[in-house]
Amino acid sequence: MKIRLLIATVACALAAGPFLHAAETETELSKKMDKMGGAFRALRRQVADSSKNADSLARLATIKENAVASAKLEPVMKADKPKAEQAKFVADYQAEMKKFLALVEKTEAALKAGNNAEAEKLVAQMGDANKAGHKQFKKPDEKKK
Ligand code: HEM
Question: 92-129: per-residue pLDDT in tens?
Fold first, then answer.
């Protein structure tokens, strides 16, 4: 009996898997964010290492390109806001994204000047902006990712 239950549980999990995945919203914005995510992970690991500055600058260029594109898009969470608050929500999001971009540009300047200690601090601030931006603008059920 127990083994049947186990088989049934595993079969259910396998059957439901693809549907659960399909339920996660993929948007233009989430695709840009995913690209930023890959580049940021590498950047965070290596920013202190000056022998990697050329690659770090390439990662920053990827982040910048996707952040510029992201600033023109709208978060999914907008639809959950009352109509009267939607325009402000989007304007606030875009303003935050522009602040984030300014931070990216400062990090670029620090690396170009060979100041890795400063770049490391700025990357930590980029991480803070990431957390704050998600807290405010990312739909709660998307936060798990
Ligand atoms: C280092 C900076 C950042 C990284 C690495 C990053 C990464 C990500 C990742 C991996 C996702 C999930 C994408 C998916 O669902 O497949 C995401 C979603 C999202 N992020 Fe970011 N993010 C960053 C900064 C920001 C900032 C500064 C904001 C807001 C000003 C922001 C707003 C959002 C929103 C709104 C979503 C949900 C997508 C949607 O609504 O369509 N992110 N981000």
Answer: 999 999 999 999 999 999 999 999 999 999 999 999 99
Enumerate residues lining ligand 1, CB below 6 A: 27, 29-30, 33-34, 36-37, 40, 75-77, 93, 96-97, 100, 126, 129-130, 133-134, 137-138, 142, 145
Over residues 35-48, the pLDDT tens digits come to 999 999 999 999 99
Return the structure tokens found at 3.
Answer: 């083994």
Token pair of 16 as six digits: 């439901």
3-state SS of the chain: helix, strand, coil percent to 5? 85, 0, 15
CATH code for the part of the protein at 27-142: 1.20.120.10
pLDDT score recorded for residue 143: 47
Alpha-carbon distance of 54 to 58, in angstroms, equals 6
Query: Domain locations in the chain?
Result: 27-142
